[in-house]
Design brief:
- With 201 residues, the chain is of the alpha+beta class.
- Helices cover 39% and strands 23% of the residues.
- It is built from 8 helices and 5 strands.
- The strands form 2 sheets. A 3-stranded mixed beta sheet has the order 1-2-3, covered by helices on one side. Strands 4-5 form a two-stranded antiparallel ribbon.
């Protein structure tokens, strides 16, 4: 049970009336749960044409379900969809795909608090996707689009953000970074304009 629910029940029992409890931000952060720490290992294989042939994503993180819903965990163990959400990469076409969850020991109260697994798995996947695209000799945009032959919406979305980004010319010392992710049926993409200070790095 969440602590704020217990607070409401205790207060309601004393005053004999319904009580609504709203934690202050400080209480929320001090007594609330945490998103689980995760370590991720990724590797991929390319065929002779530079097309993605295999994708392996291993996530080491505690089980969220095991903490907040032990009864459910007993039914689904060892598959924790909340901790692994996003690692399924359902918006890309990958012939040989493996996502693994290495359940680690929990040392804190963990919940899908302010972001389920899709936040950290998508970040890792998209960062790695750029590395694989570079190895394939393709731009991040072209490489991602090559994996969306069965995802017309996602491909159109990438074209749209690429067109929006092209309206701003890239200056010397500036660059762009691309990312794509989705949750449920929602798909999002973005392009960041970045620059570095050559003196400080």
């Amino acid at each position: 049970m969440q602590n704020y629910v217990r607070d409401a029940l205790d207060c309601s029992r004393i005053v004999k009336k319904p009580v609504k409890v709203i934690w202050a931000r400080e209480d929320d952060l001090k007594h609330g749960a945490f998103r689980p720490a995760a370590a991720q290992y990724m590797r991929a294989g390319l065929d002779e044409t530079g097309h993605l042939a295999a994708w392996h994503h291993r996530v080491a993180t505690p089980s969220v379900i095991a903490y907040f819903n032990p009864i459910r965990w007993a039914q689904v163990k060892p598959k924790d969809i909340i901790s692994m959400r996003g690692a399924e990469a359902k918006f890309y076409d990958t012939a040989n795909f493996l996502a693994e969850h290495v359940v680690t020991e929990r040392h804190a109260r963990v919940l899908p608090w302010r972001g389920i697994g899709a936040a950290y798995t998508s970040f890792a996947s998209e960062a790695f996707m750029d590395e694989v695209a570079e190895k394939a000799g393709k731009t991040p945009l072209d490489f991602r689009k090559s994996l969306m032959t069965n995802n017309a919406r996602g491909s159109a979305l990438l074209d749209k953000v690429a067109a929006m980004a092209s309206e701003t010319p890239t200056e010397q010392g500036h660059g762009r970074g691309m990312a794509f992710a989705g949750y449920g049926e929602t798909q999002v993409a973005g392009i960041a304009h970045i620059s570095d200070d050559r003196d400080s790095g």
